């Protein structure tokens, strides 16, 4: 018996490793373990001891970019309904940081924050404005969520990732922007859609690549499309069209887009259907009239001539966009030249405030729903965006993290280890959409809940009612200046008009 035991002893570790590998391959909770059985556990082991090691030999919790470890930890914990609180006190370097935002709570108010953490609870936080309401579009509606999913195309993201995000958005009552790659079957899992139209008109173009209005009408009528977003530019690569590396252009994606499979897909930098703000507005009105849904634009901010012309035309004619999505230069992308992602287009706060000021000075800010994007899926950044005048925020990389992204920064290679930003079937198979959908929904709900809690601390019923006087911008410990003065806002800029404010307060609190 002893001899048999000795012969069997060396086999035990092998059997154990084989059993662990089999378990990793069959489980559906962790994409890394399905794609890299056994060795993938090293990632979780290192993550568990990371805080202790980083104190001495690596980096601080708030040092890494584009998202710090603390920010990623908050997203991961929120998506899993785990404890997303932090202990021991502030970890950010407020003493020597210029530009740090501080939210000013009120001592007395009729509105009090809830005492429970309520992580992941489905608190209803609808938009303070009706999208398409000012121009009385046939499909005008009040968005059910102030947090929605930003544009990420099928192609840039895997089928499993698109399905997970769409299902998660549906569970959270949020909208899902298709990205410029068109609508796929993976977008049809319950969420209302914002159909993005880029310069290549994917999904609504003819065999020659020109825009086809009939196809657009068919797409809108046959899908849960609630709004159309015309993409003028993107924060991470303004002045460039989209780029989908050939490794990601599968036959399925090629068929959806109407392009060759396996070949780099580079969209033009500018549209062919219009060449000025005037002709853009003609096209907007055409799309809105033919489809019935609200139509808006998405753009990064650089030269302001376009915005000046747009505001002037909207002030003096009956034409206009229903919403404006401003994308900050710190926004994400699947692939872009370094110089564009790092140095072209203004950061969100500067770019948005300059555009909003033009609408406000012309007295038409209430005619438009303002949407912000570009690293706004974190509560502090989102609060600043709402104070500056955003009615909603769109999240992209943050919702990717909620379904497993580890900030590997390999999106452009097609080798994303978590199966999100890839078309590699082996890597993508590790991402189980149903499980990850719950995490996406949990993240969106938790972000909304945190925004609501902060709003209540400021004495208002809705994040859209937070003003630029409710925040200060620090210059280290030397001084603090209100957000209003930093960006040159006038009184009452950045908040809805009295009618919209009263209506959203009634929705949030009930009639008094």
TrEMBL record:
Protein family (similarity comment): Belongs to the glutamate synthase family.
Superkingdom of the source species: Bacteria
Native source organism of the sequence: Gordonia defluvii
One Pfam family this sequence matches: Glu_synthase
UniProt-recorded name of the protein: FMN-binding glutamate synthase family protein
Glutamate synthase domain ranges (all copies): 145-459
């Amino acid at each position: 018996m002893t001899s048999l035991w000795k012969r069997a002893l060396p086999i035990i570790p092998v059997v154990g490793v084989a059993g662990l590998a089999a378990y990793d391959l069959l489980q559906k909770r962790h994409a890394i373990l399905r794609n890299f059985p056994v060795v993938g556990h090293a990632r979780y082991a290192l993550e568990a001891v990371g805080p202790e090691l980083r104190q001495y030999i690596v980096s601080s919790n708030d040092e890494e970019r584009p998202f710090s470890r603390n920010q990623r930890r908050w997203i991961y914990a929120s998506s899993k309904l785990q404890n997303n609180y932090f202990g021991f006190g502030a970890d950010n370097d407020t003493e020597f940081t210029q530009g740090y935002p501080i939210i000013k709570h009120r001592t007395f108010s009729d509105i009090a924050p809830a005492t429970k953490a309520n992580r992941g609870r489905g608190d209803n936080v609808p938009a303070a404005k009706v999208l398409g309401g000012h121009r009385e579009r046939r499909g005008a509606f009040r968005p059910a969520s102030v947090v929605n999913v930003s544009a990420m195309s099928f192609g840039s993201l895997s089928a499993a990732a698109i399905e997970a995000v769409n299902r998660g958005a549906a569970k959270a009552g949020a909208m899902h922007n298709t990205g410029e790659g068109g609508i796929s079957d993976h977008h049809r899992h319950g969420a209302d859609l914002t159909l993005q139209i880029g310069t290549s008109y994917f999904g609504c173009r003819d065999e020659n690549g020109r825009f086809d209005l009939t196809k657009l009408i068919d797409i809108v009528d046959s899908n849960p499309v609630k709004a159309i977003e015309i993409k003028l530019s993107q924060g991470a690569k303004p002045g460039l069209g989209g780029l989908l590396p050939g490794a990601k252009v599968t036959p399925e994606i090629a068929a959806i887009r109407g392009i060759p499979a396996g070949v780099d897909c580079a969209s033009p930098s500018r549209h062919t259907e219009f060449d000025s703000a005037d002709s853009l507005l003609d096209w907007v009105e055409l799309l809105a009239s033919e489809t019935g849904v609200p139509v808006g634009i998405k753009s990064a901010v650089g030269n302001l001539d376009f915005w000046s012309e747009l505001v002037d035309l909207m002030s003096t004619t009956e034409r206009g966009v229903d919403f404006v999505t401003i994308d900050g230069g710190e926004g994400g992308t699947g692939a872009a030249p370094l110089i564009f992602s790092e140095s072209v287009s203004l950061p969100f706060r500067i770019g948005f405030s300059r555009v909003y000021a033009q609408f406000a000075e012309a007295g038409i800010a209430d005619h438009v729903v303002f949407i912000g994007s570009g690293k706004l899926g974190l509560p502090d950044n989102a609060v600043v965006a709402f104070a500056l005048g955003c009615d909603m925020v769109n999240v992209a990389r943050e919702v990717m993290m909620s379904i497993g992204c580890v900030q590997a920064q390999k999106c452009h290679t097609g080798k994303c280890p978590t199966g999100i930003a890839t078309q590699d079937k082996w890597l993508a198979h590790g991402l189980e959409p149903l499980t990850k959908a719950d995490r996406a929904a949990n993240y969106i709900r938790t972000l909304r809940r945190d925004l609501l809690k902060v709003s209540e601390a400021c004495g208002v019923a809705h994040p859209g009612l937070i003003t630029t006087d409710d925040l200060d911008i620090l210059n280290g410990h030397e001084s603090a200046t209100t957000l209003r003065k930093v960006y040159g806002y006038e009184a009452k800029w950045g908040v809805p008009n009295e009618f919209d404010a009263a209506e959203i307060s009634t929705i949030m609190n009930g009639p008094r």
